[in-house]
Amino acid sequence: MTAGVPAAGLAVIGGSGSYTAPFPEGLEPAARVLERDLVIETPWGDSPPFALFELDGRRALHVRMHGWRPGVSRGRASRQVFSVLHRAGVRRILSDAGVGSLNHLLDPGDLVVPDDFVDLTTDRDRLGMVAGDHLLIMREPVCATGREALL
Predict the structure, then answer these.
(1) Which CATH number among 3.40.5.10, 3.75.10.10, 3.10.310.10, 3.40.50.1580 corresponds to the domain 10-98?
(2) Between β-strands 31-38 and 41-42, what pairing exists: parallel, antiparallel or unpaired?
(3) How far apart are CA 108 and CA 97, in angstroms?
(4) Contact 63/49 with Cβ under 8 angstroms?
(5) DSSP string, 63-95
(6) Do 74 and 126 form a contact (C-beta atoms < 8 A)?
(7) 23, HSE (Cβ side, Cα atoms, 13 Å)
């Protein structure tokens, strides 16, 4: 069963870095889970499950992007997720990733706020139109406001 798209200005995309973390319920009592397991119909099929929560009076969506559903390509899953976020009115996204490093000076658990990236994508299925003229591509890893807040 698919749900309608709830309005939210914020989103948290959980990656491998937070895959086993109890989120957003781990933020309680500061955060209040409003709905969970929201599957939303998109032009690319049903989305992965979202949770809608409220933190300090602001509504946010949470989705896990680690561990794809059988039969759903990464490109299709990304389109589903970003279609939902666009339709929900999300303006800010926080995402995590637990990845390896090319820098031997970094240790497990180090926090890195990147200012650029190397895109070695060879699977062009990861790109595509989300809605109208909104193209799903990565530009800045962290916006200037987010970077300033994190540093």
Answers:
(1) 3.40.50.1580
(2) unpaired
(3) 12
(4) yes
(5) EE-SSPPTT--HHHHHHHHHHHHHHHT--EEEE
(6) yes
(7) 19
Q: Residue-wise over 5-21: b if at least 16 C-beta within 10 A, else e?
A: bbebebbbbbeeebeee
d(CA 134, CA 83): 10
Place of tokens 């666009």: 86
Digit-coded pLDDT (tens) for 41-59: 999 899 999 999 999 999 9
- pLDDT tens-digit map of 74-109: 778 888 999 999 999 999 998 887 676 778 898 877
For residues 100 and 17, the answer to whether their CB atoms sit within 8 Å is: no
Which whole number is the average pLDDT over 29-44?
A: 93
Query: What's the predicted TM-score (pTM) here?
Result: 0.81
How many residues are given for the chain? Answer: 151
